[in-house]
Automatic annotation (TrEMBL):
This is ABC transporter ATP-binding protein. PROSITE patterns: ABC_TRANSPORTER_1, ABC_TRANSPORTER_2. The keyword Calcium does not apply. SUPFAM superfamilies: P-loop containing nucleoside triphosphate hydrolases. Residues 4-228 form the ABC transporter domain. InterPro entries: AAA+_ATPase, ABC_transporter-like_ATP-bd, ABC_transporter-like_CS, BCAA_Transport_ATP-bd_LivF, P-loop_NTPase. PANTHER family: ABC TRANSPORTER ATP-BINDING PROTEIN, HIGH-AFFINITY BRANCHED-CHAIN AMINO ACID TRANSPORT ATP-BINDING PROTEIN LIVF. It comes from Aquamicrobium defluvii. The lineage of its organism: Bacteria, Pseudomonadati, Pseudomonadota, Alphaproteobacteria, Hyphomicrobiales. Pfam families: ABC_tran. GO terms for biological process: L-amino acid transport.
Length: 228
């Protein structure tokens, strides 16, 4: 059984339709890339999975369960861990407190997160608002992992960060993949994303227009669907 399956999802913001038929599937342990130019519906797809936007048509099944009608907190509890665009941590809690308040389950611990991101270990008693942008992003990923998600969702996790920090984050994503973590990634850095992805889905105007292995996403297709 697939971990996550979207079939013909249509979502709206009030009267304005944003998704016109998004279909995608993620198997357990896969890293899946969700791609497309700005405004094509990637974040709306993620919001639809999480129940933050209610689809009006189509189906979203997570671990065999239809998510339609469930509230966002119930959906999150089924095992979805989001790292949102623009990293949200508690500014007035320390790194350690930020991680501990997110903890649910016992596979991911403070120790494991700080092993993945040693910088967080070095700064464990620092307040989150004193961290650099990259460190806050690592903390946001650490917080999502502390919930022990069956599926980790990264929405533009490397956007706007210094190159050396982006490399740390990609290295962490590769380690998570090697550990068998299922991940849905939205990111514009194709040179990092394509080698780590098992499968890619490309959205155009709110619909899935490509589904396949990263090797099948030829330079021509990249140009057609992702070029500026
Ligand atoms: N809160 C909102 N209210 C109304 N329309 C919205 C809202 N959020 C997004 N949209 C519209 O929905 C469509 C899809 O946007 P979405 O943010 O999902 O795209 P995206 O692929 O994630 O783009 P980006 O890379 O810019 O984040 C766009 O036409 C956008 O203008």
């Amino acid at each position: 059984m697939s971990l996550l399956v979207l079939t013909g999802v249509e979502s709206f913001y009030r009267a304005s339709q944003a998704l016109f038929g998004v279909s995608l599937a993620i198997e357990d342990g896969e890293v899946v890339a969700l791609m497309g130019r700005n405004g094509m519906g990637k974040t709306t797809t993620i919001n639809s999975i999480l129940g933050l936007v209610r689809p009006r048509a189509g189906s979203i099944r997570f671990a065999g369960r239809e998510l339609a009608g469930l509230r966002p907190h119930s959906i999150a509890r089924l095992g979805l861990g989001l790292v949102p665009e623009g990293r949200r941590c508690f500014p007035n809690l320390t790194v350690e407190e930020n991680l501990l308040v997110a903890a649910r389950g016992n596979e991911w611990t403070l120790e494991r997160v700080t092993e993945l991101f040693p910088r967080l270990g070095e700064r464990r008693s620092q307040y989150a608002n004193t961290l650099s942008g990259g460190e806050q992003q690592m903390l946001a990923i650490g917080r999502a992992l502390m919930t022990n998600p069956r599926l980790l969702i990264l929405d533009e996790a490397t956007e706007g960060l210094a190159p050396v920090i982006r490399q740390d984050i990609w290295a962490a994503i590769r380690k998570l993949k090697a550990a068998g973590q299922s991940i849905l990634v939205v990111d514009k850095t194709l040179s990092e994303l394509l080698p780590v992805a098992d499968r890619c889905f490309v959205l155009e105007k709110g619909a899935t227009v490509f589904a396949g292995a990263p090797e099948a996403l030829t330079p021509e297709l990249q140009d057609r669907y992702l070029g500026v």
